[in-house]
Amino acid sequence: MKSLLIRALLPAVVLTACTGLLFAGDSSKKKVPSPYSQLAKAARNLSKIKGFKTTLTVQGGLSNTKDHKIHQFAVKETYQGDIYKGLLHVSAKESFKTPRKGVRFFEGAWRNIHSDPQGKMLQTFFNFPQEVLKQALRHAKKSGRWLDADQPAAEAEKNPARPAAEELEIELEDSGRTVVSKKPLSGEEAEAIMPTVMLVQAPTREALNHYLAVENSGCLGGG
Amino acid sequence: MTNAFYEIEIDPETALPIRIKVTALTGRKGKTRRKGNKIVGGEHAAFHFEYKLSDFGKVEAPKIPRGAQKVLAKLK
């Protein structure tokens, strides 16, 4: 009776253990968070930091390619700024700005940043990254997706020495059978293959607002 | 026709954004190729704003000249 019970229960116990391992392997894949949650976390983390450096590159004009690369430039600017709390300092342009207003030193005095074309462009183009993230976050739930979500599998194929998830062989006792399972990834491994680049699509209305802002900056020559 | 999208890169170690790219596109009637509501080629206006973020927590409060402070305070 006892041996019958052991014979009946042992395979069940072993199978349960193997199923657990199989699911543990899958759970490492399921660990990939949603773009929205990662973006919300990134925005929250950035808001906690008092100061950081930002380089902004603006390129605008006409394109005729699928990747929207500019072939005829209307604007090509690079700004370097230090952001500290709600203040941005662009030393090369002798400017200080907040998200809504700014001042610039030119013609020997501090003036409203909108008083000259250079300042106007700076105020229009150089938004606070925190604000840009907030805008993106509004649409991330609906349209956010990882651009490099397939990277782990591709990387594993490229480098067989470091597979995305190692295979684990478990031999069932007395049965002569072997179950192949996937070894769960460690926290560090899972982090290493986590996607890092996301794309968030904005609705047409917001796209139009972006374009109008560019047009109002005067960089297109029409004022 | 207008399109806009954000491309955001997050540092997996710090969970901080390290690159934010905003792209705004406007089509030209009869010249732009589109697929549904998306601009996929042909002639169109494109604007790319790419922010690269670094030196987190290493920037100190800037010293704002008194003249700049006065003008800034007057502005609405």
Q: Treating each run of at least 4 consecutive H or I residues as one helix, how many helices of chain A?
A: 7
Rg of chain B, alpha carbons: 20 Å
- Arithmetic mean pLDDT of chain B: 95
Structural class of chain A: alpha+beta
Most extensive chain contact?
A: A-B, 72 and 57 residues
Strand content of chain A: 25-35%
Described by strand count, sense and barrel closure, the largest sheet of chain A is: 6 strands, antiparallel
Query: What is the string of SSEs of chain A from the N terminus onward?
Result: HHEEEEEEHHEHEEHEH
- What oligomeric arrangement do these chains adopt? heterodimer
* Helix share bin of chain A: 40-55%
Distinct helical segment count of chain B: 1
Share of helix of chain B, binned: 10-25%
What does this structure look like?
- The complex is a heterodimer of chains A (223) and B (76).
- Chain A has two domains: 2-30 and 150-192, no CATH class; 39-146 and 197-216, no CATH class.
- Chain A contains seven helices and ten strands.
- Chain A has helices at 2-30, 35-48, 117-125, 129-143, 151-158, 187-192, 204-216; strands at residues 51-63, 70-84, 87-90, 95-97, 102-106, 109-112, 145-146, 167-171, 178-182, 197-202.
- In chain A, the strands form three sheets. In chain A, strands 1-2-3-4-5-6 form a six-stranded antiparallel β-sheet, with helices on one face. Chain A has a two-stranded antiparallel ribbon with strand order 7-10.
- The model of chain A is unreliable at 18-28 and 159-175 (pLDDT under 50).
- Chain B has 76 residues and is mostly beta strands.
- Chain B has one domain (2-57).
- Chain B has one helix at 66-74; strands at 2-10, 17-35, 38-54.
- The model of chain B has no long low-confidence stretch (mean pLDDT 95).
- The chains are: A alpha+beta (223), B mainly beta (76).
- The interface between A and B is large, with 72 and 57 residues.
